Amino acid sequence: MKQRRLTQAELATHIGIAESTISRFISGKTDKLSDANIKKIANEFDVSTDFMLGIVNEPNRKNYDISELGLSAAAAKNLYTGKVNAEVVNRLLTNPHFAEATYLISRYLNEDVAKGFAAQNQIYDSVAALISGNRQAVHDVKSLKTPIYQADMSAIQRQFTTAVKEIKEDVSKESENTKRLTKEICDKMISEIAKGSDIPNRKITAEDMAEVIAQSVSGLDGVSDEQQEQIKQMFLLMVGGANE
Asked: How far apart (Å, rounded) are the C-alpha atoms in residues 228 and 225?
């Protein structure tokens, strides 16, 4: 509330509950809020209910109801079943040019806007007819006419194409970074394996690699010795299958 500069009365009005309910909770007179009111407050501040309850420190919501997102059941099903590429959708939704494209598409689909342009163009035609004796003036007036659909389609294509190009550039950069990081990791592993060896050009075995990979996760929370051994055996099995 302090960050948003929102008073208790304003918050109560926004979420449709009694101001006294919020006041009693904030003042400590009660430590109870109904599930419905917790959800309302979380939605108002665009945070998760888990954050409101102190379960997590990250305020960003991770779970949204389909109706909140404005998705149809069919659209959600396509995402869930993989009929559409979720990674591409994520990248598009975070790109500002795609956001502008969606606005332009909604305007394009709105017939009221098209009717408005059509009416405006008719006015220009009427004015041009009244000054038909002046060719330059007629030309100037008609140049003010707006193509009802062509302009929107061009703008949509331009914004969408720009969005796709930017996504392609981002993916290329990420790919290069991944290659660089992978090489650094491999070099580090090889260095670890060869450390302390007096044998020049020592041959690195699958067992050596399996041992280093297992050691790389040894410091992670919850990884037991048994799990490290499982990782080693999985790697050896993968290498053996690849060799076959």
From this structure: 5
pTM of the model: 0.43
DSSP per-residue letters across 11-35: HHHHHTS-HHHHHHHHTTS-----H
Cα dihedral 74, 79, 82, 86, rounded to 10, equals 150
Q: Is the dihedral of CA 173, 179, 185, 188 positive or negative?
A: negative
Distance CA 206, CA 213 (A): 11
Backbone φ/ψ region at 147: left (φ over 0), alpha (ψ -120 to 50), beta: beta
pLDDT tens figures, 159-177? 899 989 998 888 888 777 7
Q: Show Cβ contacts of residue 98 under 8 Å, excluding neighbours closer than 6 positions.
A: 92, 159, 160, 163
Q: How many CB atoms lie within 10 A of CB 198?
A: 5
Q: Supply the Cα-derived Rg of the chain in whole angstroms.
A: 31
End-to-end CA distance of the chain: 63
Secondary structure element (H or E) that encloses residue 153, with its range: helix 150-194
